[in-house]
Amino acid sequence: MNIMALINALPGSIAQGLIWGIMAIGVYMTYKVLDLADLTVDGSIATGGATAVMLMLSGQNVYVALIGATIAGMLAGLATGIFHVAFGIPSILAGILTQLGLYSVNMRIMGKSNQAISVDNYDLILSLRDIPNAILVGVIFCAVLIVVLYCFYGTEIGRVFRATGCNEIMARAQGTNTDHMKIIGLMISNGVVALAGGLYAQYQGNADVNMGRGAIVIGLAAVIIGEVVLGRWVYFNYMLRMAAVVFGAIMYFCVIAVVLWLGLETTDMKLISALIVAAFLAVPYLKGKYKASHVKRGGGKNA
Q: How far apart are CA 77 and CA 84, in angstroms?
């Protein structure tokens, strides 16, 4: 095993981590802030990629394409919100229904399962051919998104949004329309996810109907890794918590790079992803169990 091969692969992992970190921030909004389990992201990230690529292929500016991708993702979130709020379908099932439907929508958008876009022919803002620039663009987008969402959380509607996720019953008792907050949250979340999809499609040079398969696992991994590793220092600040999510995504892809460097097959990645998430989910539980047993042993000795 050549250590230089691993070192050379890490910048690409960082670039991917930053792009997927944007997606993970969207997952964080529903999973942690709004306290909803939303599986729409597996479809909405592909919708964002498909919309952005097709707009650029039609001659639109790359930034217009990214705005279009974000709007498409918000519409996907709106569909999930309507399924959940208006029809009473549990959020996790509503997300699955939307995700399922988005496969056909994405095929309609692209006309086929895959659409390529080359940095040689189009003015893309990032590409895997230029990793340093991709990292810079990823950092800028992450920083701007974190600041914008942090400002949103500080507004009146942002406080109501957080209150809905913290205690829905109490928020409703204070006169909040929590159903509206859920729809807004799902729309913003999936808009952010679709934005990441638009960036990722540029980075890899194509949009694929299956590009979002397993995205929720990566998003949850980023959220959980960031929380486990940096939770003690970022718990009371939303800006730092979102930055920790991006850090978690970077760590996730660096771990994947190490696994590949060790010689495992790429076909094992789904299994490795599941094990990484399971391991970090288990850490808080095992840590708490260890502390409880330690305190119990100490109490027994003092008695």
A: 10
Which residues neighbour 185 within 8 Å (Cβ) at sequence distance 6 or greater? 29, 30, 33, 34, 36, 161, 164, 165
Kindly report the average pLDDT of the chain as a whole number. Answer: 91
Residue 115's beta-bridge partner residues? 207
Which tokens is 113 given? 């399962």
Maximum alpha-carbon separation in the chain: 77
- The contacts of residue 115 (CB under 8 Å, 6+ apart) are 50, 53, 54, 57, 206, 207
Give the number of other CB atoms < 10 A from CB of residue 180. Answer: 15
The pTM of the whole model exceeds 0.90? yes
Domains along the chain with CATH numbers: 12-302 (1.10.3470)
What are residue 116's phi and psi, to 5 degrees? -90, 150
Q: How far apart are CA 17 and CA 222, in angstroms?
A: 9
Contact 218, 254 (CB under 8 A): no
In this predicted structure, which of 78-82, 182-186, 228-232 has the lowest mean pLDDT? 228-232
42-89 pLDDT, tens per residue?
999 999 999 999 999 999 999 999 999 999 999 999 999 999 999 999
Is there a contact between 149 and 242 (Cβ–Cβ < 8 Å)?
yes
Q: How far is CA 298 from the centre of its chain?
A: 42
